[in-house]
Design goal:
Elements (H helix, E strand, L loop, with lengths): L3 H19 L6 H10 L6 H11 L38 E11 L2 E10 L4 E8 L23 E4 L8 H9 L3 E4 L9 H18 L5 H17 L11 H16 L4
Helix pairs in contact: 1-2, 1-3, 2-3, 5-6
Length: about 260
């Protein structure tokens, strides 16, 4: 005779394996448990942790952060409009950007991201073999239309972000530039966090990388998963895309006049 606990474990094991597998094999017990709850699977967190150990499943762990800021004191920097307050009340209010290094057998690559602070959604990225690369914005830049919606773009004091070319591109799009005043990771902490997740959940996990093309193909795959599936603690453990949908749905409700 098999106990009820053993029978329940047999039901949960494949579901835990599925959630871990479909989320790039990076979730630990906490996020596997939360995803199961989103799917209306009633299970205790301690049970998920116990069964993950039984299956030999582990979440990805963060490593050391590599310093990428290369300040150029000869360049004039825009004002710091953020002052380490990485908060936004709506999408397209505040974007942050940063880049990180990726080692391949063919040499170093530089991967740059642009993140919308409201839902932590990655709205732009680019992979380049040149340090002078600029993030390619996938989302249409709304800019400052009529003065009522101002979009601020924040970065650290790296020379690639305060260059004349990059500043002109922001101006053309009607975006207000902002640069961290201290020149350290805390002045661009949110972007540094996204870089750390990218390195932990994709780059370190699949290393070594043989070709640059491998990184170029894998990066948008990770971005799509991150935006549409990954559960993020700062937005109540839902994916960034879902958080934006919820915002616009609520905005539409409030915009409807009461009869």
């Amino acid at each position: 005779m098999r106990s009820a606990r053993v029978l329940r474990d047999d039901e949960l094991l494949p579901q835990i394996q599925r959630v871990w597998q479909t989320n790039m094999q990076v979730y630990g017990a906490d996020k596997v448990w939360r995803q199961l709850k989103r799917e209306d699977v009633q299970v205790a967190r301690c049970t998920v942790e116990r069964l993950m150990k039984r299956l030999g499943l582990k979440g990805a762990r963060r490593g050391k952060v590599m310093r990428t800021t290369v300040p150029d004191k000869a360049l004039t920097c825009p004002l710091d409009r953020v002052n380490r307050q990485f908060k936004a009340d709506r999408p397209n209010q505040l974007w942050v950007s940063d880049f990180t290094y990726v080692s391949t057998w063919q040499g170093w690559l530089y991967v740059a991201f642009v993140i919308d602070v409201f839902a932590r959604r990655i709205v732009g990225w680019q992979v380049s073999s040149s340090l002078c690369c600029m993030p390619w914005n996938k989302r249409c830049m709304p800019g400052n239309r009529g003065g009522w919606m101002v979009l601020v773009h924040h970065s650290d004091r790296g020379s690639q972000y305060v260059s004349i070319r990059y500043t002109e591109r922001l101006a053309e799009a009607g975006i207000e530039p902002s640069v961290g005043s201290k020149g350290d990771s805390y002045d661009n902490a949110l972007a540094e966090t996204i870089n750390g997740l990218y390195k932990t959940e994709l780059i370190h996990k699949r290393a070594p990388w043989k070709t640059r093309e491998d990184v170029e193909l894998a990066t948008p795959e990770w971005v799509a998963w991150f935006n549409n599936q990954r559960l993020l603690e700062p937005i109540d453990y839902i994916p960034p895309a879902e958080a934006e949908v919820n915002y616009y749905r609520q905005f539409a409700r409030e915009a409807i006049p009461v009869a």
